[in-house]
Specification:
The protein has about 800 residues and is mainly beta. The protein has five helices and 46 strands. It has two domains: about 100 residues, Immunoglobulin-like; about 650 residues, Beta Barrel (Maltoporin, Chain A). It is about 5% helix and about 55% strand. About 0% of the residues have low confidence. Keywords: Cell outer membrane, Membrane, Receptor, Signal, TonB box, Transmembrane, Transmembrane beta strand, Transport.
């Protein structure tokens, strides 16, 4: 904890010293407008390079910056879909200059600025690793209310539901389970494992500026669990006065044979921002209220989609103390309740099955940034996540299954990016990530008849897990460009210590060195080749799924770690060809990316036999190893400015080196092929027709219930069907006095490509769930604001 305290002291001292009085007003002003082919561009970002000064153009494409620093300054203008432009100007005190920027279209978004490649801003075309982005436009095309719903429209990603009772979901990247991918919030690994169990449904899409996805090992920069890659969720930042509000209604299960009642899923959301006239301060706020009813796919009164209620409120605030520094503060709080099983009108312990959870999640963070020299950037940051979860995992009117979990995590560090000449950069830093988890079963009354009278005793609270993990890491990455070749060399050294306060002698510690080496070569102006190698690791701590209990009247599945569990390590190789070309008015792009990951001491589950209480224990052990390999393909086509097609497909295999308890080497729930597409067509003024599709191939699924399933082998494995989830949407946008209003309606999973052999009743296997998350769903939506 000494490093934690030291970093916090440094942060406080620097911020205190830098809160100096504002410089006198210079009255050096810039006014201007941004156009493309004679058309003004609204909401383009305008900033001064090497400073924290920035704004956006208004609805008419105009901007102003007042009281700027005098002297030679470089103005940078950027907007998604256009190439950015830089221009050097001379600013003089008491004078106003006017500038006009005429941008060139970049319909493939190749010039987009990303931060996840090396923890610092750079253009996608200049990054030595492939960075895919998910924009608010894609969340709108797919009618995604939450983060998880939009992730399956990025190459190599697939979202799945893992429990009929509570709706535990995860995203798989390059065929590997969710815990192999690091979820970042504003580039910080603050989302704990426990929060990540349900986190994909906790984060509303209206608070997201964009999501950056980097496939391949990222432990060299981001530490443990970034074996398959990283998913960086970047929150909205206040840049101008804006507002937006919306409402959505979904009708789940329309026309599904044998299902129970149609389930409603509705939400309302808003976001707004206010920026001071001098652009020195700003605040953005956002919120979501959502309620989803239970959906019963087979009419047995038990949930296949758990009912839930969610309330999210958050804000982001910034203030500039001078021209070259900025302090940003983030905060959001999420309260969510989900209540799977049956008999939702009854108390939890009077039901046949109940998996009910109440999450109270609070996340806060502070970042101080200061530019030095021309564009060197110092970042000092600290953030914390505080989760209090009440739970009930029980069956058959049990009183002993109430629980409470507290999970606090912290991340703090210092990072410096230095420009070393015109063609090389160095990013280096030190950070500490700590987590403190306590999970307990709550005490309950027991009744017994003694001599004809009822006697009551009370069982005390029982600690299930009491664990802390502290990881201290130093990292560095050096990028250099030599003509057409760019090389990136990075490494991280971590020391982790995991203290198990409940089991003496089971503390774990280790030192891990994680290198990454990447090359990018511009074969031609249109073709880029990339190759990379990286190492990664997962520490032998309690993971997210350990505190998720699958409950049925037949048995419970409880996860635990083997006392001799060692850290899991990986070696990953990737190679890609990225081709983007314009032919006349047609743009197209093709990415082919091969990946190979070798896991040493790979984590695997050893299946136990039921005990007297009907509990089955899945013990996480180290297997001999595993291999995940395959090819990701991405294709983009824009034949006309009003038509946009994007698609991706993955072909892969995931196997352990030795046969597992289920009689094969295959990693479960991992299809050998899957993919997606989206098409947007602006066919008339204000109208857009969007079509989406998700394909999921066959996979091995473990079944531990009592019913007879088609194709069930002697080891309890069923090979699932393949699925194609097709959706269509029509939207209309109308300008209204400087703002816009948008109406939308559509259908998800139009052909109801959905699992049809769910288990029935109290003794069902709730983990026997696969395929698309939602059945056929009809939806309606409306949005209103000045940023549409």
């Amino acid at each position: 904890m000494k490093l934690n305290n030291s970093l916090l002291v440094i942060l406080c001292l620097l911020i205190t010293q830098l809160t100096f009085a504002q410089k006198s007003k210079t009255d050096a002003n810039i006014v201007g407008h941004v156009v493309c082919e004679g058309k003004h561009l609204a909401f383009a970002a305008v900033g001064i390079k090497g400073t924290t000064i920035g704004t956006m153009t208004d609805e008419t494409g105009h901007f102003q910056l007042i009281n700027m620093p005098v002297g030679e300054q470089t103005i940078v203008v950027s907007i998604v879909g256009y190439k950015s432009e830089e221009r050097t100007v001379i600013l003089q005190s008491g004078k106003t200059i006017e500038e006009k920027f005429d941008l060139i279209k970049d319909v493939m978004n190749l010039e987009e600025v990303v931060v996840s490649a090396d923890r610092a801003e750079q253009k996608r075309t200049e990054a030595a690793v492939i960075v895919n982005t998910i924009s608010p436009k894609l969340f709108g095309t797919t009618q995604s209310v939450t983060l998880g719903e939009g992730l399956c429209f990025s190459p190599g990603l697939r979202l799945e539901n893992n429990c009929q009772n509570c709706g535990f979901s995860q995203v798989r990247m390059n065929g590997m389970e969710g815990p192999y991918s690091q979820i970042l919030i504003n580039s910080r690994p603050i989302f704990s494992g426990l929060a990540g169990v349900y986190g994909l449904e906790l984060i509303p899409s209206n608070m997201i500026e964009k999501v950056e996805v980097v496939r391949g090992g990222g432990s060299a920069l981001f530490g443990s669990n970034a074996i398959a890659g990283t998913i960086n969720v970047i929150m909205k930042e206040p840049t101008r006065n804006s507002y937006e509000a919306g409402a959505n209604y979904n009708s789940i299960g329309v026309g599904v044979d044998g299902a129970g009642d149609i389930a409603s899923d509705y939400s309302v959301n808003f976001n707004a921002s206010i920026v001071s006239d001098d652009h020195k301060s700003g605040v953005s706020v956002y919120g979501l209220k959502r309620k989803r009813e239970m959906f019963d796919a087979n009419g047995d009164s038990f949930s296949e989609l758990a009912p839930l209620e969610n309330l999210t409120l958050g804000a982001r605030v910034f203030h500039r103390f001078g021209y070259r520094d900025k302090l940003s503060v983030d905060f959001f709080a999420i309260n969510e309740q989900r209540d799977g099983g049956n008999m939702q009108d009854y108390p939890l312990h009077e039901r046949d099955i109940a998996e009910a959870l109440t999450h109270h999640l609070t996340v806060a963070g502070v970042t101080y940034e200061k530019f030095f020299r021309e564009a060197d950037l110092l970042s000092i940051y600290a953030s914390g996540q505080f989760l209090n979860r009440d739970s009930y995992y029980g069956a058959e009117q049990s009183l002993q299954d109430y629980g409470n979990s507290k999970d606090d995590s912290y991340n703090m560090g210092v990072q410096y990016k230095a420009l070393l000449g015109s063609s090389s950069t160095l990013v280096a830093g030190i950070e500490n990530t700590s987590g403190f988890l306590t999970d307990k079963k709550l005490g309950y009354p027991e009744y017994a008849v003694v001599n004809g009278e009822i006697e009551t005793t009370h069982t005390e609270n029982t600690i299930v897990a009491d664990q802390s993990s502290i990881t201290t890491g130093v990292f560095a990455q050096y990028d250099v460009k030599i003509n057409r070749l760019k090389m990136s060399v990075g490494a991280r050294y971590d020391h982790y210590y995991i203290e198990d306060k409940e089991n003496e002698g089971e503390d774990k510690s280790g030192n891990v060195f994680s290198p990454r080496l990447s090359f990018m070569y511009n074969v031609t102006k249109a073709l880029q080749a990339r190759v990379s190698y990286s190492q990664g690791y997962r520490a032998p701590q309690i993971f997210d799924e350990d505190l998720h209990i699958e409950t049925s009247g037949l048995h419970k599945v409880i996860h635990k770690n083997d006392p001799d569990l060692k850290q899991e390590t990986s070696n990953s190789y990737m190679a890609s060809l990225d081709f983007n070309k314009q032919l006349g008015n047609t743009y197209f792009g093709l990415l082919v990316e091969g990946f190979y990951t070798k896991l040493e001491d790979a984590f695997a589950n050893e299946l136990g036999d039921p005990n007297e209480a009907g509990e089955i224990t899945y013990t996480r052990i180290n297997s001999s190893g595993a291999k995940v390999q395959g090819v990701n393909m991405e294709f983009k086509l824009i034949p006309h400015e009003k038509v946009n097609l994007s698609s991706g497909f993955t072909i892969q295999t995931s196997k352990y080196e030795e046969e597992q308890d289920w009689g094969s080497k295959n990693i479960l729930r991992t299809p050998n092929n899957y993919g997606f597409f989206t098409i947007d067509w602006d066919f008339a003024k204000g109208f857009c027709w969007s079509n989406t599709g998700n394909y999921t191939g066959e996979m091995d699924v473990l079944y531990e219930g009592e019913e007879t399933k088609a194709g069930l082998d002697a080891n309890g494995i069923v090979v699932s069907d393949s699925f194609f989830d097709f959706g269509t949407k029509l939207s209309y946008k109308y300008k209204l006095n400087g703002a816009s209003i948008e109406f939308s309606a559509g259908v998800k999973n139009l052909f109801n490509s959905y699992q049809d052999d769910f288990d029935h009743g109290v003794n069902r296997d709730p983990a026997y769930i696969y395929g698309p998350v939602n059945p056929r769903t009809i939806y309606f939506g409306v949005k209103f604001g000045n940023l549409l």
